[in-house]
Write a structure and sequence with these properties.
This protein is of the alpha+beta class. It folds into 2 domains: 144 residues, Nucleic acid-binding proteins (OB fold (Dihydrolipoamide Acetyltransferase, E2P), Beta Barrel); 256 residues, BirA Bifunctional Protein, domain 2. The protein has 15 helices and 19 strands. Strands 6, 10, 11, 14, 15, 16, 17, 18 and 19 form a 9-stranded mixed sheet that branches. Strands 1-2-3-5-4 form a 5-stranded mixed beta barrel. A 3-stranded antiparallel sheet has the order 7-9-8, with no helix packed on it. A hairpin with a 2-residue loop joins strand 17 and strand 18. Helix 6 packs across helix 7 and helix 7 crosses helix 15. The longest helix is centred in the middle third of the chain and has 22 residues. The protein is elongated, with a radius of gyration of 29 Å.
Length: 503
């Protein structure tokens, strides 16, 4: 049958249910157990134990299987986690209930009351004494519930993906455990969870292009936040010396397997520590989170086995970029060459990179690193000591003003975290913002804006502080062996299309 014929048949079955006087959308159903609880609690019971115990149950779920044998029939119910079989005998249920059973379709929601027993094939089953209709599935499930393979449909219709692909739900169960484990780790160390504004008068805390909106009543431009950083550091100024936030950021940028315009970040800040402390804390946190979320610090990601066991590898950015450039160009490239605009440009051009006129050596060195090194960092690796030019909120090294105390954590070839010793000198912060304004005037839409109130907060005194952001979506990708960020976001942003067939 075509999809339109199937929908017509389901509509006809629905009309017959109405003709029987059945309420098609009741307000509630009093279940005694979830199906998954029945399977977990009684899956190990023998047939004799079930018969002797006479376990009465009321369970509800979606029909994922129907088998008809005249007076004796079976349906398979799912609660999204587990399935259980229900045995429907004509002489065990009311005439109305049996007539209703004959009108059921794959995907319908029903409630079953009865007792547990095991069939001749030893399958845990509900012997039904009553059947209640709960909701109609007018649209047929894909391939009669055997699977949904089209990736775009899975993302656009996540509800359908969750019905027919059990692995999809498991991904989001791991995500929930990951978030709970992160919170438990930080709470145990005295961090306080807070919430900061999603709409901000100044887009700050990262180098990214923001979404812009307008508040009508106040007649003011607002930006969806690209990062909570500057607000969290205001709280540290106010004496909240260990804070964190897990929430959404929004960046008006491209979409890829690693990027979604709306994504979840963990950001945390601790007073009186630097980036060295954060490296050790990050090693501890990721090992503990992996153990809680998936039961191991050893993860399979694609063809790789990745270990979150400490210590992680460490690489200096300029040294890593120079080393790989030397290999690629078959000549010596000294890290010092990447500190000079002219020689850094020469190296980049020789590698096939485009370097805009007037670009500083820090941006060029970072571009060389990203081009040559990122994809090879499979095992967790701290890349540290970034150029000051690309780090407007980071504190410079005492012995090297062209370098800041910053690291990024890479694993599986992509960035997982970004952290630094926070710049807390208000005069230097103003100078950095002014330099960013110059970059913006030259056409860099991602350059940082001036934030006078944040500078004012620094003038009250921000203690030495370390801060870090961790991409939760990317972390869950690693923990679930998911190749795309869309696999770990319930409703990723998709290009608009028609809504598809309707009942």
């Amino acid at each position: 049958m075509s999809d339109s014929d199937l929908v017509s048949q389901r509509r006809a079955n629905y009309d017959e249910l109405l003709a029987l006087g059945i309420q098609p959308y009741p307000h509630r159903y009093e279940a005694s157990h979830r199906i998954s609880a029945l399977v977990a609690g009684y899956g190990g019971h023998s047939a004799e134990a079930l018969e002797g115990g006479h376990v009465p149950v009321r369970a509800a779920g979606r029909i994922l299987g129907l088998r008809t044998f005249g007076k004796a029939n079976f349906l398979v119910l799912s609660d999204g986690v587990s399935t259980i079989q229900a045995y429907i005998r004509q002489d065990s249920v009311s005439a109305e209930a049996f007539a209703m059973f004959r009108l059921l379709d794959f995907g319908d929601q029903v409630g079953v009351a009865g007792r547990l027993f095991r069939t001749r094939t030893n399958e845990l089953t509900i012997w039904a004494s009553d059947l209640t209709f709960l909701a109609k599935s007018f649209l047929p499930l894909p391939e009669k519930w055997h699977g949904l393979q089209d990736v775009e449909t899975r993302y656009r219709q996540r509800y359908l993906d969750l019905i027919v692909n059990p692995d999809a739900r498991r991904v989001f169960e791991v995500r929930a455990r990951t978030l709970a484990a992160v919170r438990a780790f930080l709470d145990a160390r005295g961090f306080l969870e807070v919430e900061t504004p999603m709409m901000q008068p100044v887009a700050g805390g990262a180098l990214a292009r923001p979404f812009v909106t307008h508040h009508n009543a106040l007649d003011m431009k607002l930006f969806m936040r690209i990062a909570p950083e500057l607000y969290l550091k205001r709280l540290v100024v106010g004496g909240m010396d260990r804070v964190y936030e897990i929430n959404r950021n929004f960046r008006n940028e491209g979409i890829s397997t690693q990027h979604n315009p709306e994504f979840t970040m963990l950001e945390f800040y601790q007073a009186y520590v630097d980036y060295e402390h954060l490296m050790r804390l990050t090693e501890q946190m990721l090992a503990e989170v992996a153990q809680v979320a998936v039961g191991s610090t050893e993860l399979t990601f694609g063809a790789h086995t990745i270990s979150f066991a400490a210590p992680f590898r460490r690489l200096s950015l300029r040294e890593a970029a120079a080393s790989r450039a030397s290999e690629r160009l078959a000549r010596s490239v000294d890290p010092a060459m990447l500190r000079d605009a002219a020689t850094a440009r020469q190296v980049a051009v020789a590698l096939g990179l485009e370097v805009p006129e007037g670009q500083g050596p820090g941006k060029t060195a970072t571009a060389i690193f990203e081009h040559l090194c990122e994809h090879d960092l499979v095992q967790p690796t701290f890349v540290y000591d970034f150029p000051t030019e690309v780090s407007p909120l980071s504190k410079q090294r005492a012995d090297d003003p062209d370098t800041v105390e910053r690291f990024e954590l890479y694993a599986a070839g992509f960035e997982l975290a970004n952290a630094f010793s926070e710049l807390n000198d208000p005069a230097e912060q103003r100078r950095r913002f002014e330099a960013q304004l110059s970059e913006r005037a030259r056409g860099d839409a991602e350059a940082h804006q001036m934030d006078d109130d944040y500078i004012r907060a620094l003038e009250y005194g921000l203690p030495p502080t370390g801060g870090e952001g961790v991409g939760i979506d990317r972390l869950v990708m690693l923990l679930t062996n998911s190749a795309s960020i869309r696999d770990v976001i319930l409703f990723p942003l998709m290009r608009t299309q028609s809504s598809g067939p309707r009942a």
